[in-house]
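Input record, target 12 of the design panel.
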C-alpha cells in the first residue's frame, strides 16, 4: 500500500513535501515528489513496495510524459489488462508494474478504465495534454481519498492529516458531521469531519479541469441487489459450487506478491475459508497465519484460530494479550487517527496488524463476507422487529423500553441484555433507520439531548434512508443487506482496517470483495443468505466440503474489547470539559454517571465521545 497527495493551484514544493511526509507510515520504503510550479501542479507518493519493487517508483509517467500517476492500491487483473493493452499497441517499460498498466489503461480507455479494474485503489492521473486531474476510488472505497477545493486550489490526499499540512488549508469542524458521527459511530462519505472537505465515495471518479477550475463527480459503479429472475434446477448446489470457484480464484489473485504474505485467522467462517483456499497454493510450512487473543474469555477466540490452523497445517503465529496491555496502547493509537471513528475493534485490529507486520508485508482478511451474505445479528432481529412494531402500539414502546432497561447490565462481549436493549431502541423509530439506530452510539432522542435541539432525522440519517429507499426489493433483509454493503462496510469496516494496517505499514487484501464474486453473490436471493435464523446460509453450505461444522456453525463472537467495563471501572473516563460548544456537557455527565452506576449501558456513546475528545484535542 501507499500514500498519495497533491494539489493544483497555489502553494509550493514545501507544501507538497510536508503533505507527503506525514504519510510515511503508509509507505516507508520509498517516496517521490514531482512538481511543475509554472502550471501549479504538484504530485507526491509514499511507497510500500509490494510489486515490481525495482521498477515501480512513483509518480510514474508514460514515455512521452503526457500522463503521470500517483497510485495507492493493488490491481489484481493487471496481467490480463496488460496483455490486452499490448495487443492494442502499447509498449511497457516495467516488467510487471500494475501502476504502469493504469497509465496505459487510461490512455486507451479514459474514464472507462475503473470499470475494467479488479482490485482496490485510489489514484490521481495528471493529463498534461488536456490539463486535467482524474481521480478514482475503488468500488467499495477500500482505499481512502479526501479532497477539497477552495479559493482556486484543489487538494487531495490519502488522509486528512496530509491535507492539513498545506499552508492554505483551513477548515472548521462540521456540526452535521458530528451529528452523523454520533448517529452512526462513523462519518459516512462524502462527508468528512471538516466543512468543505470531502471523501470521494467508493465507486466514483472525479475530474478536475485545471484550466476551467471545474470539478465534476461521476459514479461509475454502485452495489445493487438484482436477484436471478428464476432459480435453475438444483440452484443451491449449483450456486454453492460457483461460490467456491469464485472465492478460490479471488484468493489466488490476491496471493500475487513480491514480498512475504500471510493470512488473518480468527477461526471464524470468513478467515478460515480464505486460509483453506490459500493452502491450495502454498504448502503448510510456507503458509503463515496470524491471530491475537485476550486473557478475558468472552473476548478471546484463541482456541478457534488454533483449531483452524491445525486443520490446514499452517505456520501459525498467535499472541495472547492482557486487556490492560491493550488499553495502555489506546492513547497512542487513537491519537494517530486523522478523523474520529467509533469502532472500538480498531484496537484489536491494530494489535493483529502489528503482530502480523513483524513477519509479512501483505495479509489476506475476511472483510466483506458478513455484509454480502447477511452475517450480522440484526438480520435475526428483523422479523421480530416487524412483528413487535405491528402488534405493539407505539405509546407502549417507551414503557416496554423502561422495563427492559432494568435488566442487569453486563459488559461481557455481545451479552443478551445488550442485544435486547439495542433491538428495542431501534424499533421505536421508522424502519428506514432501524439499522443505524441499532448500531449507533445514540438514537435520535439522544442526539437531541446531546446537541440541545430536536434531531433532523432526514438530514442526519440521509445515507441510511437512501440505502433503504433505493433498494428495489420490499424484503427488509435485502434493504438491510444494502445498508451494510453500501454504508457500514465502506465507512466503518474498511476504514478501520485501512487505518489499523497502515499505521503498521501492512497491506491487507479482501478476497470477498473481488468484483467477480460480488457480481455473482448480489444476484443470489436473500432467502439463500438468511434462512430460518441462520446467517450466511449459502456461504456455510458452500464451505461444508472444506471446513468442519465446529467452524461453520459456531456462534459469532466478534472482535471487541471491554470498553463498557473500562468506563464502568473508571479505567477510562471523559475529561469533563466542554470539548465543543455544540455538545451539552450535562448530557455527557449524565451518560457517564448512569454507566458507572450500572444503571445503563452507555458504552457506545462514551467510547465515541472519548475518541472525539482525543481528536479535537489535537486539531
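The sequence produced for target 12 reads:
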Amino acid at each position: 500500500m501507499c500514500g498519495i497527495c497533491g494539489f493544483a493551484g497555489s502553494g509550493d514544493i514545501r507544501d507538497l513535501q510536508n503533505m507527503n511526509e506525514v504519510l510515511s507510515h503508509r509507505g516507508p520504503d520509498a517516496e517521490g515528489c514531482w512538481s511543475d510550479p509554472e502550471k501549479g501542479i504538484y504530485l507526491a507518493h509514499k511507497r510500500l513496495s509490494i510489486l515490481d519493487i525495482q521498477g515501480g517508483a512513483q509518480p510514474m509517467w508514460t514515455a512521452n510524459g503526457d500522463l503521470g500517476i500517483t497510485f495507492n492500491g493493488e490491481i489484481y487483473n493487471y496481467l490480463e489488462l496488460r496483455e490486452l493493452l499490448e495487443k492494442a499497441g502499447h509498449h511497457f517499460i516495467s516488467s510487471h508494474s500494475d501502476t504502469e498498466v493504469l497509465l496505459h489503461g487510461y490512455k486507451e480507455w479514459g474514464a472507462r478504465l475503473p470499470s475494467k479494474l479488479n482490485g482496490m485503489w485510489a489514484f490521481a492521473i495528471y493529463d498534461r495534454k488536456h490539463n486535467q486531474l482524474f481521480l478514482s476510488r475503488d468500488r467499495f472505497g477500500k482505499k481512502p481519498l479526501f479532497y477539497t477545493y477552495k479559493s482556486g486550489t484543489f487538494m487531495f490526499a490519502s488522509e486528512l492529516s496530509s491535507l492539513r499540512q498545506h499552508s492554505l488549508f483551513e477548515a472548521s469542524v462540521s456540526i452535521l458531521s458530528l451529528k452523523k458521527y454520533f448517529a452512526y459511530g462513523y462519518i459516512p462519505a462524502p462527508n468528512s469531519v471538516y466543512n468543505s472537505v470531502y471523501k470521494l465515495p467508493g465507486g466514483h471518479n472525479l475530474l478536475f479541469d485545471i484550466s476551467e477550475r471545474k470539478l465534476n463527480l461521476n459514479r461509475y459503479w454502485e452495489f445493487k441487489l438484482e436477484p436471478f429472475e428464476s432459480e435453475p434446477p438444483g440452484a443451491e448446489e449449483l450456486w454453492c459450487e460457483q461460490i467456491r470457484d469464485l472465492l478460490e480464484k479471488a484468493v489466488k489473485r490476491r496471493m500475487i506478491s513480491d514480498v512475504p504474505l500471510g493470512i488473518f485467522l480468527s477461526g471464524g467462517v470468513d478467515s478460515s475459508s480464505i486460509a483453506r483456499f490459500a493452502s491450495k497454493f502454498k504448502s503448510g510450512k510456507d503458509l503463515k497465519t496470524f491471530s491475537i487473543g485476550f486473557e478475558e474469555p468472552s473476548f478471546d477466540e484463541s482456541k478457534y484460530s488454533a483449531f483452524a490452523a491445525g486443520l490446514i497445517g499452517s505456520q501459525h503465529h498467535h499472541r495472547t494479550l492482557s486487556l490492560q496491555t491493550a488499553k495502555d496502547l489506546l492513547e497512542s493509537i487513537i491519537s494517530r487517527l486523522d478523523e474520529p471513528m467509533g469502532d472500538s475493534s480498531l484496537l484489536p485490529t491494530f494489535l493483529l496488524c502489528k503482530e502480523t507486520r513483524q513477519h509479512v508485508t501483505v495479509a489476506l482478511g475476511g472483510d466483506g463476507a458478513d455484509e454480502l451474505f447477511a452475517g450480522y445479528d440484526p438480520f435475526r432481529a428483523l422479523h421480530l422487529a416487524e412483528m413487535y412494531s405491528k402488534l405493539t402500539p407505539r405509546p407502549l414502546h417507551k414503557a416496554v423500553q423502561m422495563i427492559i432497561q432494568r435488566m442487569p447490565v453486563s459488559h461481557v462481549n455481545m451479552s443478551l441484555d445488550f442485544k435486547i436493549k439495542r433491538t428495542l431502541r431501534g424499533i421505536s423509530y421508522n424502519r428506514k433507520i432501524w439499522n443505524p439506530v441499532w448500531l449507533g452510539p445514540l438514537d435520535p432522542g439522544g442526539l437531541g439531548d446531546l446537541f440541545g435541539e430536536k434531531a433532523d432525522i432526514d438530514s442526519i440519517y440521509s445515507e441510511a434512508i437512501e440505502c433503504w429507499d433505493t433498494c428495489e426489493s420490499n424484503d427488509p433483509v435485502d434493504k438491510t443487506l444494502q445498508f451494510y454493503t453500501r454504508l457500514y462496510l465502506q465507512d466503518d469496516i474498511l476504514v478501520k482496517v485501512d487505518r489499523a494496517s497502515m499505521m503498521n505499514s501492512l497491506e491487507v487484501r479482501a478476497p470477498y470483495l473481488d468484483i467477480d464474486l460480488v457480481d455473482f453473490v448480489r444476484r443470489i436471493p436473500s432467502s439463500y443468505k438468511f434462512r430460518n435464523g441462520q446467517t450466511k446460509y449459502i456461504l456455510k453450505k458452500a464451505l461444508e466440503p472444506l471446513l468442519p461444522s465446529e467452524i461453520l456453525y459456531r456462534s459469532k463472537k466478534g472482535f471487541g474489547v471491554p470498553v463498557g467495563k473500562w468506563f464502568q471501572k473508571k479505567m477510562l473516563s471523559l475529561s469533563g470539559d466542554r470539548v465543543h460548544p455544540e455538545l451539552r456537557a450535562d448530557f455527557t455527565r449524565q451518560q457517564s454517571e448512569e454507566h458507572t452506576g450500572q444503571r445503563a449501558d452507555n458504552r457506545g456513546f462514551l467510547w465515541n465521545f472519548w475518541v472525539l475528545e482525543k481528536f479535537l484535542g489535537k486539531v
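The two ends are 26 Å apart (CA to CA).
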